[in-house]
Amino acid sequence: MAIHPLQGIGAPVLLIHGQSDPVVPLKASLGLQQRLEAQGCDVALRSFAAGHTIPSEALAPIRQFLERCFMPTSGEISALKAKA
């Protein structure tokens, strides 16, 4: 039995895609989003009026995603301080 490369993804996923991407069509990201959601993944897709690039409008959603995934909450910081 072959293991599909999308199986077992447990980390949150952010997909950024240009709506007029001439290299990879938007429907590729839409399909990937559906497959990941079907597996129970935490996935978000943000599309922008752009081609095969990451426009400046994508930076705020990328930052928010990274903060949500990697910035500790105040409770986590308190717990770390208590252990120190």
Beta content comes to: 5-15%
Q: How many distinct folded domains?
A: 1
Strand order of the largest sheet: 1-2
Per DSSP E runs of 2 or more residues, the count of β-strands stands at 2
Number of helical segments?
A: 3
Note poorly predicted spans: none
Order of helices and strands: EHEHH
Helix content: 40-55%
**Distance separating the two termini:** 46 Å
Largest sheet properties: 2 strands, parallel
Verbal overview:
This protein is α+β, with helices and mostly antiparallel strands and 84 residues long. It has one domain (13-83). Helices cover 42% and strands 14% of the residues. The protein has 3 helices and 2 strands. The protein has helices at residues 26-38, 59-70, 74-83; strands at residues 13-18, 43-48. A two-stranded parallel sheet has the order 1-2. The termini are far apart.
